[in-house]
Amino acid sequence: MESRKNNRGNELLQSEKWLKFQEAAGKQVIRFFTDNWSANGVVHSLPFVGKYLYVPKGPLGRIRSQETGVKEGGLVKSMMESLSAKAKEEDAGWIRIEPETDEVLAEIRNSVSLKLVKAPHDMQPRETFRVSLALSEEELLASMKSKTRYNIRIAEKRGVKIISSTEKRYRDEFIRLVTGTAERKGIAPHPVLYYEAMLETLLGADATILAAEKDGEVVAANLLTFFGDTATYLHGGSDDRHRADMAPFLLQWEGLREAKRRGCSWYDFGGVSTAEFEASEGKWLGITRFKFGFSPDTRSTVFPGAYDIVVSPSRYATYLFLQRIRTLLSSFGKR
């Protein structure tokens, strides 16, 4: 594993387009930005404790000036003071942030007057798997695990075809497959309106649906975004009746190829768990093994995780208490 150094693909969650998607999904958003920093966020509301402000994959910026190499602590302090003032204005009990690096986290810790603590859970995957696209297609194939290459060929031999589209038919099929896959795995999917708002806002120059078809039927589909120098596999789903066709393997391979055609430098497969992969157990094992198969020599990228800036100590204490109760009830229910 390696700490994140410069993944500008994270700017997607700090972009104006992402904020517009959140607004289309019915969320209240806030916008803070300077020439060097952005701290755009979404206002969430929870029962009993009220609002909190979530800054996904941010604040985003740089600790040192590219021209002088001087630390920009004053800019960080000014940004965090403005963000804290906005949270109080919105009556938010805390601000949840996701710093890019440990260095950014340390700078924020030194710049806020309010208490900063590790959040009880992460919002975005703390560990992701990013593959460099500097290699040729032939070299990318050669670097994969033999089983992954074999499954790609199986999909091709079984007549699976990959189509890139933004048309309504493929939007509907994508939502059907994503929600069906989540339910099959015991995960509560987002509401259909959430996915519809996402596709309506993102699809176009910045995103496409890659659909795997066999005999005219869509058997798997991925949503791929292109932002900065990074292509990101954002969501995907497949039809369990067609598992033997290996469509997800061909979908990811075509995603890598599409990213190269668009001039991207990186392909982000999303969340993984190296610990579960090494232990050969856990809920992330299957998906981590699948993703690592495309570049087994690539090391995952690890982020600091989510941290909370406590605006209202009493409401935050209530929130933590309710989280502990929820965890205990969940553990009891699994017995």
Give an overview of the whole structure.
The protein is an alpha+beta fold and 335 residues long. It folds into 2 domains: 153 residues, Gcn5-related N-acetyltransferase (GNAT) (Aminopeptidase, 3-Layer(aba) Sandwich), CATH 3.40.630; 175 residues, 3-Layer(aba) Sandwich (Aminopeptidase). Helix content is 39%, strand content 24%. The chain has 11 helices and 16 strands. The strands form 3 sheets. It has an 8-stranded mixed sheet. It has a 6-stranded mixed sheet with strand order 2-4-5-7-16-8, sandwiched between helices. Helix 1 packs antiparallel against helix 7 and helix 5 packs across helix 8. The longest helix has 21 residues. It is globular. The N terminus is likely disordered.
Brief account:
Helices cover 39% and strands 24% of the residues. With 335 residues, the protein is α+β, with helices and mostly antiparallel strands. The protein folds into two domains: 2-124 and 304-333, Aminopeptidase (3-Layer(aba) Sandwich); 127-301, 3-Layer(aba) Sandwich (Aminopeptidase), CATH 3.40.630.30.
* Fourth-level CATH superfamily of the largest domain: Gcn5-related N-acetyltransferase (GNAT)
Extended strand count: 16
| Distance between the amino and carboxyl termini | 34 Å
The strand line-up of the biggest sheet is: 1-15-9-14-13-12-11-10
Strand residues, percent:
15-25%
Count helical runs.
11
At the fold tier of CATH, the topology name of the largest domain is: Aminopeptidase
Order of helices and strands: EHEEEEEHEHEEHHEHHEEEHEHHEEH
Based on secondary structure, the structural category is alpha+beta
Question: Based on the structure given, which CATH architecture of the largest domain is correct?
Answer: 3-Layer(aba) Sandwich
| Overall pLDDT score | 90
Radius of gyration: 21 Å
**Sheet having the most strands:** 8 strands, mixed
Shape: globular
Helical residue percent band: 25-40%
Q: What would you call the quaternary organization? A: single chain
